[in-house]
Request: fold
Amino acid sequence: MKKLITILIVIALTLIAALVTPWLMEDPGYFYLRFAGYEIEMRFIVAFGLLILFIFLFWLTVFFIRMPKNISKNFSSNRSRKSFAKGLLALSEGKWKLAEKQLLISTKNSPTPELGYMAAARAAIAQNKIEQAFMHLDEAENNTDNPLTVDLTRCELWVKTAEYSKAINLLNRILQSYPNNPRALHIMVQASQNAQQWQQLREILPKVEKLKIMTQDKIQRLIQHSILQQLSFAKTEEHLQASWNSLNKTQKLEYDYIHAYAQTGLKLAMFEQVAKLTENSLNKNFSKELLEIWSQLNIDNNQRIKTAEKWLEKNSDSAELLQILGQLCLQNKLWGKAHNYLQKSVEINPNSKTFKLLAQYFDAVDEPENALKAYRQAENTNTQLILIDDTEATKD
Reply:
């Protein structure tokens, strides 16, 4: 801009001279000066020429006077640029100590010392010199009119040093003034994730997606992960229900979210809510994992038996469902049904738990020898349980 103004002034003076010269040639005029008893008279064009010469000589004098200082300044600036380049190269090569030294040297007589201080802070962090790093950032802030870049660098260093709450607080203030700053949003995603601030992460991801700061796949993975974390580690019924209510209709149909809600709801004794959700899900898509959670709910046994028997109509080969029905019938002292369901479960998939339930059945109906055999069989589920015929035993 400065060079452009100079060029325009020279052009303007040239045009003025071209216009005035013919007129001066015809009538040059005279310049008359009387000062301290002296009288000076000369043609106007000569006086004008002397004025130009005087201005030129004055500029030349100033130029030579300032030359040493300018040469020194240029030398220092060149040295600063070289030190900055060396510092960045050392930083990229992992030579942290050398990088910090060169970058600090580069801040002297640099037009942008804040850049050197911020890079030096990164080198200091790499050496685990935390206090020194933030001192460099303070210097950077003192040498700039726009602290945004310094604040963002400070947040990045806080994230690296696990000072997540400090980073999040400052980032919130930054985003109030610069809501679409991509770097601030990116750091906020990292800080929220590391601090396990899942709700905050979910709130900021739509803007991250809109501005295309991350790939769509990564954003979706972060959304899924944050929801699962909220549902899986909710500490109270209110927190779990709030997290569930924050989901949209499509998300509430996803199996992973249903399973996480049901598992946590079981721990928090939310039996009625979990029963309703799991039963609706099992009616549509049968799942062994959800069935296992449902079987542990403290709800009315008679109703559970009716519900499970409806599921059995479509899932007659489910050893897990037959086992649960056998257990429920044992609890309600429905001995015939219990034995029938447990025996079918063993035939499909013999396992330790089912044999133990059969042993409980035999104890309840006073068949101690079969109960003992079932308990032994629970330790080895690879063979079929062979029952003792009480009638034959009597004959013997």
In short: The CA atoms of residues 335 and 365 lie 8 Å apart. DSSP finds 20 helices and two strands in the chain.
